[in-house]
Design a protein that fits this description.
Length: about 260
Amino acid sequence: MSRSRPQALYVLAHPEQHSLNRELFAAARAELERTHDVAVSDLYAMGFDPVLTTCDLGASGREPGTFLERWGRATASRGLASDILDEQRKLREADVVVIQFPLWWYSVPAILKGWFDRVLTAGFGFDVVDPATGRTRKYGDGLLTGTRALIVVSFGESASAMGPRGIAGDLDSILFGLIHGTLFYTGVEVLPVHAIADADGFDSSDIARETARLRARISGLAEETPIPFRSMRGGDYTRSRTLDPAIAPGRSDLAIHRRGD
């Protein structure tokens, strides 16, 4: 059956019901609902279990073989735990995914890391093989190819402190594992990060400003250009999966994995 509107998944990882992140989430979700049918994974409100265990594998967890082998079989047979199947369905159906969280200790909250650990299973997020070629699909190719993602992250530092020469480190580099190693790895096209700096000291006018800015960002997602990462099979990498020495010679910063840098 054809869909009348595009689908979206909004993933929120914040424990408080009354917070800056909640206000931003409510405004962004309302804006997204103007153009999309929106599914929500409010991880704390759901009581989502972030711990990957053998129980996630269902009957396959009791079979012989390595954990990775049994994990792949559980994915293939749809024998995974029901909450994982629900989240995978939301991801498969989504044309766009918004992932919102506060930056904690230079990373995502543990509950969100656990969501990735449990939902991006072997045979779904990784170890996805193209039956026509026998090649593993990753870094710009995977089951989530065609999906776009926006990361919305708040932090207490100033924007300059999290810039290229800031004491806290460059935000794009801090989030490279999420942006490139998780989302782009699975085939997702990632849009530039929406950063909310100085979030610890906001007053009502700051909240109103950032709410309006996020709504404007959400309303224009369809016109945005994803980060131009180099795909693994696009010709820029050698057989050992290192960047061709003729490209950005002498550099080793993470920006070399983007075309045009």
